[in-house]
Model the fold of this input.
Amino acid sequence: MSQLKTAQSIRSKRGSSLAEFGPAMWIFFVMILFPLFNLVQFACSVATVALIARQAAQACASSPDYSDGLTAARNTATTIATSGFGKFGCLKPANQYGISVYIDQTNVASKQQTVFGPDTPMTTAVDSTNNIYEIETRCLYDVGPMLPMQNVPYIGDIPLIGKAYRLGFSSERAAEFPDGLSTQGNATGSGSTTGGTGGTGGAAAAAS
Done:
């Protein structure tokens, strides 16, 4: 009789453990493992969008005129966004190309900055004697979750888990051929080239 009770007790404990195993695995996969995958994917997305902004700015800044530079920047953005890194990051451009190109004009004496754009050349003549010209690219992409869980209760509305997250990044590069940035040419009537490819970048993200 005692052995029978012991066997029944063992079966009861095993049944209880099996009953708890299912919910425990659900919590592990849904609440921990899948969000961790999405976090790794988001880190890759941030690096990819930053690379797009940087490379597109460089491509535009090194072009002899603004029209060619704009085309080069857009082609660079499309190539990187559709590469393996872009696909892994589930990147989708928030506008047609995912990138906008601006011209930053900074007066050397007053440090006052004037921004032209997006995606249009300057409408005033270039004065490279008194101003510094930079190409600024602003990227905006929607990062979708790698493992979408929009139908899971409580977490379906969380960005990067159940819905996309809008990510922005900007980068600046010195214009190597400032004369080509304007439809009005150079104010001094002489050509000029700005050397150097240095620049700075900044990131900003906002949830969609």
Observations:
- The radius of gyration is 27 Å.
- Residues 2-206 form one domain.
- The helical segments are 2-61, 66-81, 84-88.
- The beta strands are 91-93, 99-107, 113-116, 131-143, 165-174, 201-206.
